[in-house]
Design a protein that fits this description.
single chain, about 400 residues, alpha/beta, six-stranded mixed beta sheet, four-stranded parallel beta sheet, 14 helices, 13 strands, binds zinc ion
Length: about 400
């Protein structure tokens, strides 16, 4: 297996056991989720080194990833724009609002980052097939990267997932399993499928150490695009927690390497119909309690028992951030307002971060001189029907 120089192996998030990189998934001692570790002293990277590289893909930060660019399964994901939105800054009463438009990834979502790194790991481990349950975008991304690597892909998506997600799994040649019900049902069907096929390599969030690892690159880019100043706040739409866990780790790493001085306050944005992380924050708990009847139009956020909740809660508390949940109509309204005032297209689930930013501004969480980044984790095109139906409800 070809790895980068500083990559030191894997560490169990639960029991702290150090595990070699040959281990592919969970901790052999306790079953906890694993996290890549690095010898940071061996990483030679500075502002100038990076400035000399083209801004062309997340693999320009390969020193901070487990695998070198030469062996990466990549379709040039990442390197997405950070767009200034002065009208939104006026509305929120802050100095600057920027939207990190990760909808402009190869399959139209942030999940491409983690899928690229995790499918690279699968190929390095000699897997023939990858499999995962997903709310939608993750399945589409996995099918795309598996196709690129010549691997089989088995995706389990709940029937409520978007048409584009399901269609594109098929288009990439993946095995698309539509599971009646919601995300929990898809997880169950995936577990049954895996029991029958012990050679399937799981790409389920936090089963593989590499999806949350790939999610780190989003923060490296934001920091570099702001010339290595750190935004005061980042609002991130939060489902299973992969994205926010990656953000938090990346922010700590670049500070450790002396590339930045600060950490951003991290805010998890959820929908009121499924907000286990916001509820845990409000109630002062260290872990979520599963949402019994999740119900939101934001399919990517309908994760009633997020596997990453403990780490997300820890990151929010460490960075003095917070959580915010808003109602579906407000979320769709935010998507439309952003589309009409900035020209950018947010997927409804990511519009929860915009709607959440408005709510946080109303609560007085931001100061007038602050810079706020809203992350758009998916292209609005994927769910144009949902966005347009909101307009129809207004009689347009
Ligand atoms: Zn362990």
């Amino acid at each position: 297996m070809e790895t980068t120089d500083a990559f030191a192996g894997l560490e169990c998030v639960d029991c702290g056991a150090a595990v070699g990189a040959a281990e592919s998934h969970r901790c052999p001692d306790c079953g906890g989720s694993l996290d890549p570790t690095y010898d940071y002293g061996a990483i030679e990277i500075d502002h100038e080194t990076l400035a000399d590289r083209p801004f062309d893909s997340q693999w320009r930060y390969a020193e901070l990833l487990p695998f070198p660019r030469e062996s990466a399964v990549t379709t040039a994901e990442g390197a997405t724009p950070l767009v200034d939105c002065p009208d939104l800054a006026d509305e929120l009463g802050v100095e600057r609002v920027l939207i990190k438009d990760d909808g402009r990834n190869p399959t139209g979502s942030s999940t491409d980052r983690g899928a690229s790194v995790a499918v690279t790991a699968a190929a390095e481990h000699g897997a023939s097939d990858v499999a995962l349950p997903s709310t939608g975008n993750g399945g589409q991304a996995a099918a795309a990267y598996a196709a690129r690597a010549g691997l089989g892909a088995h995706a389990y998506l709940p029937s409520r997932s978007g048409f584009t997600n399901k269609a594109m799994v098929n288009v990439h040649g993946g095995d698309m399993n539509v599971v009646g019900g919601r995300f929990g049902d898809a997880v169950g069907a995936f577990a049954e499928g895996r029991d029958e096929h012990d050679d399937w390599y799981s790409l389920r969030s936090f089963d593989t150490p590499y999806r949350h690892e790939g999610a780190k690159t989003l923060f490296y880019e934001i920091a570099e695009q702001l010339e290595w100043s750190v935004p005061d706040a980042i609002c991130y739409p939060t489902g299973d927690g992969v994205g926010l866990v990656g953000l938090a780790k990346a922010a700590t790493e670049v500070r450790k390497l002396g590339l930045t001085d600060d950490l951003p306050a991290l805010y998890a944005a959820q929908a009121s119909g499924c907000a286990p992380i916001v509820e845990a924050l409000d109630e002062g708990r260290d872990e979520h309690e599963p949402v019994e009847h999740p119900d939101t139009i934001c399919g990517e956020l309908e994760v009633p028992a997020p596997a990453g909740s403990q780490r997300v809660l820890e990151a929010i508390r460490e960075t003095d951030g917070g959580g915010v949940a808003t109602d579906d109509p407000d979320i769709l309204e935010a998507a439309v307002r952003v589309a009409q005032s900035t020209g950018l297209e947010l997927i409804p689930s990511a519009a929860a971060a915009a709607s959440g930013a408005w709510e946080l501004a109303e609560r007085g969480e931001f100061d007038g001189d602050e810079t706020v980044v809203i992350v758009n984790t998916g292209s609005g095109n994927k769910e144009a029907d949902v966005l347009r139906s909101h307009l129809m409800g207004q009689g347009v």
